[in-house]
């Protein structure tokens, strides 16, 4: 289970309605609501700068957070909506949903590339190219994996690839993309070798003899 669930700090918001929300924004806060989990909705405020930083990091709506609010037990939440100003495109409100341990959610799980030094294809001069650093999975909130493991020592030759079907998924996890066996990484030839091969191909093309008309071959009728 993932041990690096990030904390998201918030304050309980006193008062509800547009007036309380406007007052929160004047104080540099973004109002929000926490709902679900068989509990009453909890109005909150989150510091504007903290929320902006989280949004810029990306994947905000698919990241599981440990919400910490003074006077309340920590709870796992996931963002379900961020409302923005139509002109400035800045966050004005957010909705967070409480999660039970059995709740199924989509999350991007990072990939841990192991045994690069022992990779035969890399030892032969190949270059590792990473196509994906994370994979979106449908997982249970109470059993989220830290990473997906890729064993690079299985790549024997330059040109070998690892696709999603080569990765053993954690028990209970499902792929969100199921219609294709997408690539995770490959080992390609160094650019210098590629350039040499291209030069050889061009040189070989230049050496192909051309057929010229011999002087003693009579012209065709009408010439």
Automatic annotation (TrEMBL):
CDD domains for the chain: Ribosomal_L25_TL5_CTC (cd00495)
| Superkingdom of origin | Bacteria
Q: Where is the composition biased (Acidic residues)?
A: 212-223
Q: Where is the Large ribosomal subunit protein bL25 L25 domain?
A: 8-96
Q: What does this protein do?
A: This is one of the proteins that binds to the 5S RNA in the ribosome where it forms part of the central protuberance.
Family assignment? Belongs to the bacterial ribosomal protein bL25 family. CTC subfamily.
Q: What is this protein called?
A: Large ribosomal subunit protein bL25
Task: Say which species the protein is native to.
Answer: Roseovarius aquimarinus
**Gene assigned in the entry:** rplY
């Amino acid at each position: 289970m993932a041990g690096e669930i990030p904390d998201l700090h918030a304050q309980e918001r006193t008062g509800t309605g547009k007036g309380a929300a406007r007052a929160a924004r004047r104080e540099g806060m973004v109002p929000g609501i926490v709902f679900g989990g068989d509990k009453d909705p909890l109005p909150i405020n989150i510091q504007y700068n903290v929320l902006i930083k989280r949004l810029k990091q990306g994947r905000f709506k698919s990241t599981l957070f440990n919400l910490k609010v003074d006077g309340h037990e920590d709870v796992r939440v996931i963002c379900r909506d961020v409302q923005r100003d139509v002109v400035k495109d800045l966050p004005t409100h957010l909705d967070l949903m409480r999660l039970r341990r059995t709740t199924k959610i989509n999350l991007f799980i990072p990939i841990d590339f192991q045994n690069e030094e022992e990779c035969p294809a890399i030892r032969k001069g190949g270059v590792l190219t990473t196509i994906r650093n994370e994979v979106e999975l449908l997982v249970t909130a109470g059993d989220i994996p830290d990473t997906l493991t890729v064993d690079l020592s299985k790549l024997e030759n330059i040109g070998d690839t690892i696709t999603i079907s080569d990765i053993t998924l954690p028990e209970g996890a499902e792929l969100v993309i199921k219609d294709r066996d997408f690539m995770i990484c490959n080992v390609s030839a160094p650019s210098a070798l590629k350039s040499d091969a291209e030069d050889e191909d061009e040189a070989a093309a230049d050496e192909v003899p051309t057929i010229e008309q011999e002087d003693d071959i009579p012209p065709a009728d009408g010439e």
